[in-house]
Amino acid sequence: MNDLQLFKERSNEAYEIYLPHISIDCVVFGFHDTSLKVLLLKLKGLESWGLPGGYVQKNEDVDAAAHRILEARTGVSRIFLEQFKVFGTVNRSEPSLTHMPPDLWYRQRFISIGYYALVNYKDIVPQVDDISDACEWKDITGLPEMMMDHELIYKTALETLRKQLNYKPIGYNLLPEEFTMPELQKLYEIILGYTLNRGNFQRKMLAYDILIKHDKSRKGGAHRSPILYSFDTEKYNKALEGGLNTGW
Amino acid sequence: MNDLQLFKERSNEAYEIYLPHISIDCVVFGFHDTSLKVLLLKLKGLESWGLPGGYVQKNEDVDAAAHRILEARTGVSRIFLEQFKVFGTVNRSEPSLTHMPPDLWYRQRFISIGYYALVNYKDIVPQVDDISDACEWKDITGLPEMMMDHELIYKTALETLRKQLNYKPIGYNLLPEEFTMPELQKLYEIILGYTLNRGNFQRKMLAYDILIKHDKSRKGGAHRSPILYSFDTEKYNKALEGGLNTGW
After folding, report:
1. What is the domain range of residue B203?
2. Last residue within a domain, chosen from A164, A192, A215
3. CDD domains under this entry (chains A, B) (predicted)?
């Protein structure tokens, strides 16, 4: 079966299964050690890359659809996903798919609901499916050309993530259970894209009151053994809900 | 023409004009002096109230649709609207509309895109249309029963607005051009629903560096004439984009 036949078969199924005009795109950020990556895939027959995405079944909640779509790409079912914006301009799909027949499912106008997640990329094995040639982590410092408006969706997700550093805690599931203040600072710096003052960072982070300081320090050859911290999960989760301790 | 005939006629038009399955709901908060209100309407034949909403035309951007819908309700075309969340559970419309025939446009499953706005309610005259009995400002301290999941949409918008007080400036177009620190504090208190410490509020607000302090003070009979401030619009708009001066 050639690519077009495959897309036509999938198109007919899609009209049966999914709500028309509505799609989901997921921006999955992967952090590990010192780099931030994003999960991209390449549809068969296209040169540019795209975000993992899909559609909403006629009898499925939108959030459930996002989890189903992401599980198919990552093999992981319980990724914390957050809706961040709807992308709804009329011509957002053009010109990426104009080589396909106009009655194909994929040629509709889609209003896309953007979700993002931040995971430890070592925990996930990207999954290729039969309409894609590749599904890979790409470092955000050297992203390939993207299809449709996916670069805008990715950039909006990164902006959202950066803004959320000001009012939401971050780091759980991304750092080892016990970590040093410089390791936590590095996570913030990688996401923000610039370096931070060490003293200010520590003062502000401790004021948030979401860390537990441990008596022991990590074994190693350095002159000064760095102090270890872990997240106080109760306070961390409370801050996830209600915001960090910076409010009015 | 009775109500059902009217809804049927509108239903037929809607299938022609709009994308199926997608709706928009607007939470318009109105502030003035010492109260916060929300704009609600009552569809003909329903007992409960609803948010002003509508649908996306087949050739219309989603944001443009939100502005069109709100203009029809308020007569005002340039309200600053912000998308805040998509409401997409399967059964979110039930049971409000189950008395209508199942093939009616309004009985579809709708995934609704929530927008909110904060305006000075004195600037707006609510507009009733021919499928509604009423369109009114209701004080948030005594809201009537709402249809579908509109109470959830309203509450989520209010939560979003409250969280944004921590990282976005607020007050432009809501306060007179020159205002006192207690007047600005009152706006925050009305939105948050609790009182704030005066000294802390002033210190924090001045640290944001978005105010211009005026030499003159307001004339009046009080022992102490309150100092007048206005927003530094350049800094205010920069903070709207990039966040308040609290970041890393």
Report:
1. 179-242
2. A164
3. NUDIX_NadM_like
